[in-house]
Write a structure and sequence with these properties.
The complex is a heterodimer. Chain A is α/β, with parallel strands linked by helices. Chain A contains 13 helices and 10 strands. In chain A, strands 1-2-3-4-5-6-7-8 form an 8-stranded parallel β-barrel, surrounded by 4 helices. In chain A, β2, α2 and β3 form a beta-alpha-beta unit. In chain A, α9 packs parallel to α10, α11 crosses α12 and α11 crosses α13. Chain A is globular and about 65 Å long. Chain B has 15 helices and 29 strands. A 7-stranded parallel sheet of chain B has the order 5-14-13-10-6-7-8, with helices on both faces. Chain B has a 5-stranded mixed sheet with strand order 15-19-22-26-27, sandwiched between helices. The longest helix of chain B has 17 residues. Chain B: This is Citrate lyase alpha chain.
Chain lengths: 306, 512
């Protein structure tokens, strides 16, 4: 579990608005996706990428993960976005319209080239592909396996519904199959799954319901279009008190078993096996992020048990 | 010139009166007795109802050089002060001082009468153009800025004597009993006017809603009122109270509110008996909303809500989250409707609210107050009077009073106003001394005054973004750059009184 990164909330910020970029440090989201794609008009593509570069160069005390959504690589802006922005060291690239494994592989190759040029560690830049078409959803498994840089799969419902020629409803029933398929691919690969945006920023109840659904399905985070949505999403992804209590008991049981030198760990008459420990560790890391527990989980205790 | 304890240069005297430099929030001990007013006798059958404002002014005995007062509960919808000044001008009077509880932008109409010498000066703070013009040197009239509690003190101790108080009375009978609860110009609490009525030499009630004797409930009684005058309109109801006091939806404001509410929770004050004051700004209301939710969640029953009362506080009262509201002024329509309906919605005078020189003001019982700022400095001193251009645009209100009284005073402000950083090396004008400020909350971090070291530790433990105030300043200035200092002339255009009457700062003419 080394390298675990909490990604409950991934907030979109337009790359062409200095007033919004300057507020990035203040919001409590886990990740920011600075957008050079849909939020930026064609006439501002060039200015926006340079603005983003300047912002990233000056944002030295980074307090959250920074991703940049570039334009698709088959447009005339995609490569240029990478060329200008990568020297400012974002943490990763959000790749829109990741319809096929080949598109991701191409980005992977480009990132490697830039890493060599910039003399940084190969694999430094992560990839968050956005599966947002029927083709992308069908290819989810192949995409998940197309690059080791991929740390999560993101589902994009707006473009997906457009590609399906359907309307997106508040309940989202029409998204169910696609959501599940993206999720399966992510879980099979052992990476995170990030749910689509909820566009109505005034409908907090709708946002909560959709986030709860995504969490129940297995998603670990959600993309957001407004900072006001962060609190609701974090609240949904916060572990329940009884989950935290149980997870603490699991860790305590592991530590007790290690002191006794026994490999068999039981709690309340039930065996504590690796999946239970893994789940407990995830709950406690999330609980720590929410301020529900005071200390970070004892990694040694976890790894020792596994 | 003398230096006060905050390092501000204070002249020996201003507008012919000696000044006391500010020393400490609680140092001055008052001596002597409260001011007096003339004894009166009104025999059975004598009438108080006069036919016009002119007749009332004549009957009051107002003369050149005297002082008049109005109250500001009708705020920017007030018609009365403008009408009185116009009438005084028409009568040929000169050198009149205004000692209203506050002057609003709507009163810019009296500027020609300042220029012509009808109005000589202000024994009160001003909002808007009058202050701006004075700061630019475009009008010459002394201004003494006072807090709500400080104004009550100055009238009660007699350092400001009101010769004639004209009281806008939204609901009044012909013998002078009045309240602000009913009528077309209803404004709710008459907390400021109660002081004027008690201490002025002559009291004129002006109403647009004369009702049969007796008005009940009585906010200001007939025993204090000399004359009653009926006018067509006291004010513009749309501007008397705001109907748009709403929780902010701005993400930055919400972030600030979230931090502020977490500060309150971390302070340990949010428990049964909690008492609280906020303003009507969007961020303040967002804090109130979060506090309300926390009180619900924790089944906390508060003691009282205070100050300018909004519908939010009314809802909290009616929900049982507070036992009482202590109301010196109503900030919105819901509050006005409540004060006539809820027995536990208590109208209080500015004296009871915040006067430091009585046997105990309500602000002394406040656990927590949320306040705004135009600037804060690295010593936690707060400016609410002048803007960063140096213009005197705002009165103090209850800012310094509540900061001094409350156990915890929290400043909430966006880190950047316009393009300027909120935290400065030195504020343009000190309104409220840093030693009475507990915490400064911005969206970029929380600065805690060292006197609240335990709270600071608790906030750090809760993983809130606690920063040294200088560190916060540097961080903001990395975004905004460092603003060039303003330049001022030597001429003092206004003095800022602390609540005890000492001078905390002066406003100088801006060098154009």
């Amino acid at each position: 579990m080394a390298g675990f990164k909490l990604r409950r909330s991934l907030l979109y910020v337009p790359g062409n608005m200095p007033s919004m970029l300057q507020n990035i440090p203040i919001f409590n989201c886990d990740s920011v996706i600075i957008d050079l794609e849909d939020a930026v008009p064609l006439s501002e593509k060039d200015a926006a990428r340079h603005l983003v570069k300047r912002f990233l160069m000056n944002y030295t005390d980074r307090n959250k993960e920074l991703l940049v959504r570039i334009n698709p690589l088959d447009t005339k802006w995609g490569y240029e976005d990478l060329r200008v922005v990568l020297p400012a060291m974002p943490d990763g690239i959000r790749l829109p319209k990741a319809d096929t494994p080949e598109i991701v592989e191409r980005l992977d190759t480009l990132l490697t080239e830039f890493e060599e040029e910039l003399e940084v560690e190969i694999g430094r830049f992560g990839i968050l592909p956005s599966l947002e078409s029927a083709l992308g959803v069908i290819n989810a498994v192949g995409i998940a396996n197309s690059s080791e840089r991929i740390f999560a799969l993101a589902f994009g419902a707006e473009d997906y519904t457009a590609s399906m020629e359907i309307e997106r409803s508040r309940g989202g029933e029409e998204l169910f199959n696609a959501r599940t398929r993206v999720l399966w691919a992510a879980k099979a690969k052992g990476i995170q799954a990030v749910d689509t945006i909820f566009a109505d920023v005034s409908d907090m109840e709708g946002l909560r319901a959709e986030t709860e659904l995504a969490k129940r399905l297995g998603y670990t985070g959600k993309c957001l279009v407004n900072p006001r949505q962060i609190e609701v999403v974090h609240d949904v992804f916060a572990p329940k008190a009884h989950e935290v209590e149980y997870a603490l008991q699991v860790i305590e049981a592991i530590q007790r078993a290690r002191q006794l030198g026994t490999g068999v760990i039981a709690l309340g008459g039930k065996m504590v096996d690796a999946p239970v420990v893994k789940r407990a560790a995830r709950v406690l890391r999330t609980a720590y992020a929410h301020g529900m527990v005071d200390t970070l989980i004892d990694e040694e205790a976890i790894h020792g048990a596994q | 010139m003398a230096l006060n304890s905050l390092g501000r240069e204070i002249p020996e005297s201003y507008a012919g009166k000696p000044l006391i430099p500010y020393g400490d929030p609680f140092a001055i001990r008052p001596q002597g007795n409260v001011a007096a007013r003339p004894l009166k006798r009104v025999n059975p059958g004598e009438k108080k109802l006069l036919s016009s404002l002119r007749e009332a002014i004549e009957a009051s005995g107002l003369k050149d050089g005297m002082t008049i007062a109005t109250h500001h509960s009708l705020r920017n919808g007030d018609f009365l002060l403008n009408r009185i000044v116009a009438e005084i001008a028409a009568m040929g009077l000169k050198g009149i001082w205004i000692a209203s509880s506050s002057v609003h932008p709507v009163h810019a109409e009296i500027i020609p009468h300042i220029k012509s010498g009808v109005i000589a000066g202000f024994q009160c703070g001003v909002n808007g153009l009058i202050g701006e013009m004075a700061t630019k040197g475009e009008i010459a009239c002394p201004i003494v800025v006072r807090t709500h509690g400080g104004r009550a003190r100055s009238v009660i101790e007699g350092s400001v004597h009101i010769d004639v108080a004209f009281i806008a009375a939204p609901c009044c009978d012909e013998y002078g009993n009045m309240n602000g609860y009913y009528g077309p110009s209803a404004c709710g609490s008459l907390g400021y006017a109660q002081i004027d009525a008690t201490y002025a030499s002559c009291v004129v009630a002006v109403t647009d809603h004369l009702v049969p004797f007796p008005v009940v409930p009585v906010s200001i009684p007939q025993t204090l009122v000399d004359y009653v005058v009926v006018v067509d309109r006291l004010g513009d109801p749309a501007k008397i109270v705001s109907t748009t006091t709403r929780v902010t939806t701005d993400p930055v404001g919400l972030q600030i509110a979230s931090y502020a509410s977490q500060v309150i929770e971390a302070s340990g004050l949010l428990r049964d008996g909690f008492s609280f004051q906020t303003g009507s700004g969007g961020i303040s209301l967002a804090v109130a909303e979060k506090v309300r939710n926390a009180m619900r969640k924790g089944s906390i029953k508060g003691s009282f809500g205070c100050g300018g009362i909004t519908g939010y506080f009314v809802e909290m009262l009616e929900e049982g989250l507070f036992s009482a509201l202590m109301d010196v002024q109503c900030f919105d329509q819901e509050a006005v409707l409540s004060i006539g309906r809820n027995r536990a919605h208590q109208e209080i005078s500015a004296d009871m609210y915040a006067n430091p020189f009585n046997a105990g003001a309500v602000v002394n019982r406040l656990d927590c107050v949320i306040l705004g700022a135009t600037e804060v400095d690295t010593s936690f001193n707060v400016n609410v009077n002048t803007e960063s251009n140096g213009y005197l645009l705002h009165n103090t209100g209850g800012h310094s009073d509540t900061a001094a009284g409350a156990k915890l005073s929290i400043i909430v402000a966006p880190s950047i106003r316009g393009r300027l950083p909120i935290v400065r090396d030195r504020v343009t004008t000190i309104t409220t001394p840093g030693e009475t400020i507990g915490v400064v909350v911005t969206e970029r971090g929380i600065a805690v005054n060292e006197k609240h070291a335990e709270l600071k530790e608790e906030l750090i433990r809760r993983k809130l973004p606690v920063k040294d105030i200088s560190e916060l300043q540097r961080e903001i200035c990395r975004v905004t750059g460092t603003p060039r200092p303003l330049e001022f002339e030597d001429e003092v255009v206004a003095v800022v009184e602390y609540r005890d009457g000492s001078i905390i700062d002066v406003v100088r003419r801006v060098k154009e």
